[in-house]
Structure to design on (502 residues):
């Protein structure tokens, strides 16, 4: 009876391996591929996307799934049931999408990235607008194919946050706006403002790289199963838990951006390296939603990396690495400067208080694009108006505004909400960690991250897809997702830093 399941496993593993090749080609494109190879790479990715689509829509795969779903005599374990359930969902999605659309989306994503890079470099949104318009048409068509019962944008959100819709996200984001905008204003009006002058200077790139590699390794990134490189936009990629690749970008006048982007991407990488691949290259060993994934990167970047204990532990290393900048600075002053709240143009450089408003802005724009209340040609103006409304700043260029993110160049609509959902998850997970390991801050101050990493691996990484995100959060924290903890965390932390009355 189990031969049908074994046939399913063989087909699923082949699909996983092909997707691994696709991922490696994508990493190569962003990190080391020659600029003139863009056209050839687009065709390669299109061809490979077509092959993967054929494998994922193979009628023989459907026959295996039908047999396993309709034959109660087949006794499957919870792991096997998970593989069948996830394979059925993917099969249903893929069989509803014509191969022509799959290939066009893949090719446009490859071409679109190159167009975006150049448009961003030259501050020319008009060069990128046609790509964005075409992607919107294709993604609306895709949504109608896979989930005609949903609104188009909900179908795209579901790709990253399964079971999550605008009706669930919008109230949470409205609540955050109501609290964050006045909190940011209070911070701005405070007479207490941390000195950040020493955070700017000349920081040698080789020393920045050394620092990034050391701290990433201290946290737990295995360089035997991964690598670190430079790209235009920091990301975590790779093809397998034994081949995880993280990137950052360096600036000679700011070492914090590169270091904390590496801490962020290391959080993603620890999730990937900690997945239960001993269960096979199968759906059960994969990570959950992007929100859960983002919770891991923000957990390490915000909850750990920006904590006072972390700053105390690494401050002497920072001083010896960059003595000219930190000779007369204390660890407390560094902690306060690191956690300064100041509205900025760039999302990936934003502090944890203003960051959610960057996400909310993008979410509202995507909603508008999908319901046609906003038009692509108007986006630079809309973007700037929302930046002024939420953060009281106006980007001087489209490079610093509407062109700053790579997501739309690959058609990743519905991804942005995951960042703030991840921040809420991270805060709630950290509360649970503290309740179980009350000496966590002492471990951080001592540079002992193993107990934290092991807790995350046991609770989240090694679970693969055995639980839904909702089940996972409930099992770890004892309650559903609760955004109140996130706001409490921000208010308490920044009230102390800026001496606010709360």
């Amino acid at each position: 009876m189990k031969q049908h399941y074994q046939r399913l496993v063989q087909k699923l593993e082949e699909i996983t391996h092909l997707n691994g090749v696709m991922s490696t080609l994508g990493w190569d494109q962003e990190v080391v591929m020659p600029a003139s190879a863009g056209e050839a790479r687009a065709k390669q990715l299109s061809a490979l996307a077509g092959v993967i689509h054929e494998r994922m829509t193979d009628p023989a795969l459907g026959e295996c799934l039908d047999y396993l779903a309709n034959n109660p005599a087949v006794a499957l374990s919870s792991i096997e049931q998970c593989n069948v359930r996830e394979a059925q969902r993917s099969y249903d999605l893929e069989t509803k999408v014509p191969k022509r659309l799959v290939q066009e989306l893949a090719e446009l994503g490859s071409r679109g990235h190159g167009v975006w890079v150049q448009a961003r470099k030259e501050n020319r949104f008009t060069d990128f607008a046609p790509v964005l318009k075409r992607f919107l048409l294709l993604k609306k068509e895709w949504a109608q194919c896979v989930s005609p019962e949903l609104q188009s944008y909900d179908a795209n959100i579901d790709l990253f946050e399964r079971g999550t819709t605008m009706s669930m996200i919008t109230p949470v984001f409205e609540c955050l706006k109501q609290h964050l905008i006045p909190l940011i204003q209070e911070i701005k009006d405070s007479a207490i403002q941390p000195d950040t002058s020493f955070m700017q200077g000349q920081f040698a790139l080789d020393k920045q790289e050394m620092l990034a590699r050391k701290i990433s390794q201290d946290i737990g990134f295995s360089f035997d199963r991964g690598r670190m490189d430079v790209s235009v936009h920091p990301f975590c990629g790779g093809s397998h838990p034994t081949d995880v690749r993280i990137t950052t970008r360096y600036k000679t006048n700011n070492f914090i951006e590169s270091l904390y982007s590496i801490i962020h991407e290391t959080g993603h990488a620890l999730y990937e390296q900690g997945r239960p691949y001993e269960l096979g290259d199968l759906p059960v060993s994969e990570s959950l939603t992007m929100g859960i994934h983002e919770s891991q990167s923000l957990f390490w970047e915000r909850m750990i990396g920006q904590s006072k204990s972390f700053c105390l532990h690494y401050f002497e290393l920072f001083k010896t690495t960059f003595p000219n900048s930190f000779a007369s600075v204390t660890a407390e002053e560094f902690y306060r400067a690191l956690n300064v709240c100041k509205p900025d143009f760039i999302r990936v450089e934003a502090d944890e208080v203003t960051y959610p408003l960057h996400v909310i802005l993008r979410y509202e724009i995507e909603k508008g694009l999908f319901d046609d209340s906003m038009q692509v040609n108007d986006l630079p103006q809309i973007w700037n108006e929302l930046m002024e409304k939420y953060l009281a700043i106006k980007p001087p260029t489209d490079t610093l505004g509407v062109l700053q993110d790579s997501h739309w160049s690959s058609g990743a609509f519905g991804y942005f909400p995951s960042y703030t959902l991840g921040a809420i998850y991270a805060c709630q997970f950290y509360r649970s960690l503290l309740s179980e390991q009350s000496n966590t801050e002492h471990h951080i101050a001592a540079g002992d991250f193993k107990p934290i990493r092991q807790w995350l691996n046991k609770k989240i990484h090694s679970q693969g897809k055995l639980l839904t995100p909702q089940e996972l959060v409930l099992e770890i924290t004892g309650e559903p997702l609760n955004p109140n903890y996130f706001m409490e965390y921000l208010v308490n932390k920044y009230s102390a830093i800026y001496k606010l009355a709360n």
